[in-house]
User: Fold this.
Amino acid sequence: MDTIRTDVIGALVAAVPGLTAERARELLTAPPDSAMGDFAFPTFAVRDRFDNAPPPAVARQLAAAIRKPASVARIEATGPYVNFFAEPAVLARTVLESARAAGARWGATDLGQGRTVVIDFSSPNIAKPLGIAHLRSTVIGNAIRNLHAFCGWKTIGVNHLGDWGTNFGKLLSAWEKWGSEESLKERGVEFLKDLLVRFTEAERADPAFRQQARDWFRRLESGDPEAKKVWQHFRDISLAEFRRVYSLLGIEFDSWSGESAYVDRMAGAIAELEARGLCSESQGAYVVDLTAHGFKEPFLLRKADDASLYGTRDLAAILYRRRDLGARALVYVVAADQKLHFRQLFKVAELLGVDVEPVHVEFGLMRIVNAEGVREKMATRKGTIVLLHDVLQAAIERVHEIIADREWDAARKSRVAHQVGIGAVIFNDLSRTRTRDIDFNLQQMLDFDPETKAFKGETGPYLQYTHARLSSALRKYGKEPPASVDFTLLTTDEDRAVLRQIGRFPDIIRDATTRYEPSLLSRALIDLCGEVNRFWRNQRILSDDAALTDARILLVQTARRTLRTGLDLLGIEAPEEM
RNA sequence: GUCCCCGUAGCUCAGUUGGAUAGAGCGGUGGUUUCCUAAACCGCAGGUCGCGCGUUCGAAUCGCGCCGGGGACACCA
Assistant:
């Protein structure tokens, strides 16, 4: 694809006075429809070189004047654009040969050059169940981690657990009053959540509770063995439950260092701030004043009661990740409602002169439509929480219904149900633009047609199904496709459309990575599959014509590998049969 | 009150960072399987791009002002 693009740019530079190759590369786009060509050059951008003639006239003039490179079949003026049609056989050869040469790394660009990036994602709070709201950070973060690793970054995926803070004072205090080892064993995190909710309610009625919670948190912060022991127990129980869900999702972390890991580093971070004269007292709290930097509110380091705050732990974590882990970039995959916090945090890090590039990859809130039909943010204490585990199980169950009458053994059914059900849930999230809010709707998430018993439309299963189809054709072909085929046989509209989608892949990967936007990849895969399925429908792959079969099977193999790589990066399994 | 995000077909969403006739999926409706997986493919119907003004050769996209939804605004994370 790139070699043809370079040819087109060369021809344009020769024909347009004063046009540089760089500028031409910027301007050259793709037409909205492959029937209109493979490259499009907009003439309004160079109108001034042609006496400000109307763009369509410039397009016609240029189309006639440009010397056609060998890799270009046709040049056409369409409205204000000059459209270039790649020589189909050259298109086929360039795309398929570069994909083959790249192998499993097809689509990758070395953006990271071995640098380290810490990606902070999922990060649930201990003693609260994993809700559906945690899905977003978890799957978006995982995809971003995969994309960065694919593009040459050394990635460290951190689950920055919320395992410290004032809430633990409440929890320890509640445990002291109403704790029951038996209930804990039986109901796990759910019981801890109930304790917390009960305590929060009691606290509203009786302010004495507040002081007790403070005392417990102080004990915990000062290393009291009893407090620490109970805390550790709660943490272990929470983690065991979290791991079950992560394992369903197929997601792993390189580190589970949560907030508690930075407790001992807070003093050092504060000392550095003090050394630069950045700290002050305000309303009894210890803060960094940021009014000189456009913030109304200060960044809080310690509460008036001397207890630590999460911002300070976050700051200590930045120092650790930069200095001890060698991170050059820090990515925080956290909902948009914490935007202000991260702006402040990054500013404070900057004031400390930390040489690192921090990014808050924000995403829209998962809202729930409550009983009165009003959308609102989900909250554990309002009881408006939908358990992530339940949603995943529901998805798996749904697929079980679909494949019930397949003649497969139970293990296979269960494997496919898992792959497809989880894939549906993950893709549902990753196919949307990050920043949009989502109204949680299980019905819609698992939308399927009860008549035909099938998922429909732009879904994870659609991608997986396409992958299974391609896999099936390759299985039937039964051998490794030849390295070289007759590329002049791959010139139908369907061939070209599939080749075009495959050819876009490296650009897509690069954009999705640098913009932290997995949905770009999701949608590109939808486009790829659309073309693949049209191709599948309209032409026969395996036929008596050996040369044609070889050529098409190479296209099929390349399409499948591209799709497979894309699904891997999104964290979605690619079944060979379904 | 201040600031941030969002508003595109009945529903859910794209729209390549200002360009071609605003596109998909679902739902509706009609069709496609002697053949590699029909969880697929094709046709039809469906639009005041929230409203107004402005910038521009050109605006869904940029600016300003309204309207509507969501969120943030120091001792929670």
